[in-house]
Amino acid sequence: MTDLSMTKTPLLTVEHLTMRFGGLVANSDVSFVANNAEITAIIGPNGAGKTTLFNCITGFYTPTVGRLTLRHPDGKEFLLERMPGYRISQKASVARTFQNIRLFGGMSVLENLVVAQHNKLIRASGFSIAGLLGLPSYRKAESEAIDLAKYWLDRVRLLDFADWSAGNLPYGAQRRLEIARAMCTEPVLLCLDEPAAGLNPRESAELAELLTFIRDDHKTGVLLIEHDMSVVMRISDHVVVLDYGRKISDGDPAFVKNDPAVIRAYLGEDEDAELPAEVANDLPEVAQNDVKRAEEGA
Ligand SMILES: Nc1ncnc2c1ncn2[C@@H]1O[C@H](COP(=O)(O)OP(=O)(O)OP(=O)(O)O)[C@@H](O)[C@H]1O
Ligand SMILES: [Mg+2]
Questions:
Q1: DSSP letter, residue 116
Q2: 291 pLDDT exceeds 70?
Q3: Helices (H), the chain
Q4: Is 130 near ligand 1, meaning CB less than 6 Å away?
Q5: How far is the CA of 257 from the centre of ligand 2 (A)?
Q6: For residues 164 and 159, what is the distance between their CA atoms, to the nearest angstrom?
Q7: Cα 240 to the chain's mean position, in Å?
Q8: Which class does domain 1-93+187-298 fall in?
Q9: pLDDT number for residue 76
Q10: Which of 52, 191, 224, when mutated, tests ligand 1's pocket best, judged by the most ligand atoms within 8 Å of its CB?
Q11: Residues 256-273, mean pLDDT to the nearest whole number
Q12: Whose Cα sits closest to atom 3 in ligand 1?
């Protein structure tokens, strides 16, 4: 008997995505599938086109060419390349975080999470001031929004900081708060742009645990741009590698890690290129031997 829980269902299908800025091609004919309730990592050297890909998925940019289809688990389909950004977050339920933190620094930690749920709250107000002032449905929606905010604050270990100004939190806590804020919108697809950047090893391990919880317990699909290979290789179900805007590899972590095209992209064609420290420990020995040989002038 087939175990349906093991069946992969496509959530985001990217077909022939090309994004040009004048003469610069940031994404070139990129195609891949990200499955529901899986973590799909997007990796690649600086300038490879990872953030541009996110900007196309979330409607910040309209792709020059290509189709981006999001299929919800209930079967509803959205052609993202035809939708403006605000509809992609509201209707298609895609949430994202940014490479540089974008919280409301002057608002409290809790307020940041309640404000993120404004669509739900505005609907419950009946789009009127009268609604805001007294409708029982609004009061109910507001208390549900606070409950959801507290649930996610607890998950990211920030419940004790609910009344702090978000801007006063330490850096690692701000990163976690951003993820909690995105999850408060109850997304079907969560896009994270370098969430481990600037975290210490303990915080990175906690982040990895949070992302697997989001995948396994909430069945949310996660697209993860990340340079920290220890996080990527440990938690990803699927890895897509970009280099100079093109997809150069696509498969499970073990496949991608040993793919000569990936090793070349990180090492460069240049034999004496230095392997970046954050990838050195995670690439196979053969690549590291190449570096040693180059250093020894072999
Ligand atoms: N709005 C824009 N206008 C012009 N060029 C852009 C724009 N956005 C991105 N680019 C260019 O597209 C290329 C890919 O950039 P992108 O930010 O997507 O790379 P990345 O893979 O996210 O890199 P990093 O790892 O450094 O964050 C770069 O050459 C960048 O300069
Ligand atoms: Mg980027």
A1: T
A2: no
A3: 50-57, 85-90, 109-115, 118-124, 129-134, 136-155, 171-183, 201-218, 229-235, 253-257, 260-267, 277-280, 285-295
A4: no
A5: 21
A6: 10
A7: 13
A8: alpha beta
A9: 97
A10: 52
A11: 77
A12: 21
**d(CA 142, ligand 1 centre) in Å:** 39
Structural domain boundaries in the chain: 1-93+187-298, 105-184
- Residue among 17, 19, 30, 50 to mutate when testing ligand 1 (max atoms within 8 A of CB): 50
> What pLDDT score was predicted for residue 283?
57
Residues belonging to the chain: 298
Between the CA of 226 and the centroid of ligand 2 the distance, in Å, is: 9
Neighbour tally for 167: CB within 10 Å: 13
**What pTM does this model have?**
0.87
Measured by CA distance, the residue closest to atom 11 of ligand 1 is: 26
Question: Binning pLDDT at 50, 70 and 90, where does residue 284 land?
Answer: low
Look up residue 8 and give its amino acid.
K
Instruction: Say if ligand 1 is within 6 A of residue 183 CB.
Output: no
Contact 219, 15 (CB under 8 A): no
pLDDT at res. 265:
86
* pLDDT attached to residue 1: 43
Interhelix angle for 201-218 vs 171-183, to 10°?
10
Token pair of 111, please? 């307020």
Angle subtended by helix axes 136-155 and 171-183, to nearest 10: 140
Distance (angstroms) between ligand 1 centre and the Cα of 24 equals 10
What is the per-residue pLDDT across 99-112, written as a single tens digit (0 to 9) for each? Answer: 887 888 889 999 99
Task: Kindly give the distance from the C-alpha atom of residue 298 to the centroid of ligand 1, in angstroms, as a whole number.
Answer: 36
> Quick one: which atom of ligand 1 is closest to the CA of 55?
18
The band of 121, judged by pLDDT with boundaries at 50, 70 and 90, is confident
CA of 226 to the centre of ligand 1 (A): 15
Tell whether ligand 1 has an atom less than 6 A from the beta carbon of residue 49.
yes
